Amino acid sequence: MRDARGNSTMIVSMIRRSAFGLSMSLVLGASLPALASDAHSQPKPPLQQWSFAGAFGRYDAAQLKRGFKVYKEVCSSCHSIHRLAFRNLAEKGGPEFSEAEAKALAESYKIKDGPNDTGEYFERPGRLSDHLPPPFPNEQAARAAFSGAYPPDMSVLAKARGFSRGFPQFLADALPGFSYQEHGVDYIVALLNGYEDAPGGVELPAGQYYNAYMPGHRIGMPPPLSDGAVTYDDGAPQTLDQYSKDVSAFLMWTAEPHLDARKEIGLRVVLFLIVLSTLVYFTKRKIWEKAH
């Protein structure tokens, strides 16, 4: 009797599991076309060529200077970079402004400081040790200026944004030394160039813009850049495409300012290990040669 009851209980359990699996298959099967449609309508950002890509890549100081100019003249009116200090602009591996240039830039800003001896706050010229001041005094003021939306801080934006490259590229991304690290800057370039007129049948709420690379294709930020918006002093093209690449490279540097030093140390370690392995190999041969 106990065996019969046990068998019947097992059969009922198997039937329930089968029914659950069938129902989940039907649900997932019904949702797959919608997911495929969403993936199809969301284009992947084009892969760009970056000077800092790969094991031997390095930042282009001239490009970083141009990118900082784009940020300063356009992006800084809405977005902060709270991790960036004026002294960082003169450090090796970055835009490499001279110390005098960085100091003059800092002094062009008014920094709120205090309290003084009388307990009052005051404004003073910036110093190299100061961080770039934000465009708004607090988050509430920023949201009030943009109808509740909060412009994100750009300090690590290039590392916080990204996309999946799909098959078969994602296989290489899983291998040490072969992973693609430039998803974020590729996405930013695509986003800045992705503003389009909304296709027929698509209605956007007031204050929203159509962008091919924005998830959902709706973005509250108006197109920030256009040809001729920023004047370059080094003869570089003054186009939307160039602006977007320069400011994206600058944002990559703010997110990973020690990339050049890290890669240099990594190459030195690899060379050291090669030399060490060679010495160990020949030492082992010499020792075992005498042993035999």
Automatic annotation (TrEMBL):
Gene3D superfamilies: Cytochrome c-like domain (1.10.760.10), Cytochrome c1, transmembrane anchor, C-terminal (1.20.5.100). Binds 1 heme c group covalently per subunit. It is found in: Membrane. Heme c binds at residues 75, 78-79, 221. Residues 1-36 form the signal peptide. The keyword Transferase does not apply. Residues 62-166 form the Cytochrome c domain. This is Cytochrome c1. GO terms for cellular component: membrane. GO terms for molecular function: electron transfer activity; heme binding; metal ion binding. The chain crosses the membrane at residues 265-283. PROSITE patterns: CYTC (PS51007). Its cofactor is heme c. It comes from Methylosinus trichosporium (strain ATCC 35070 / NCIMB 11131 / UNIQEM 75 / OB3b). It holds the Pfam family Cytochrom_C1. Keywords: Heme, Iron, Membrane, Metal-binding, Signal, Transmembrane, Transmembrane helix.
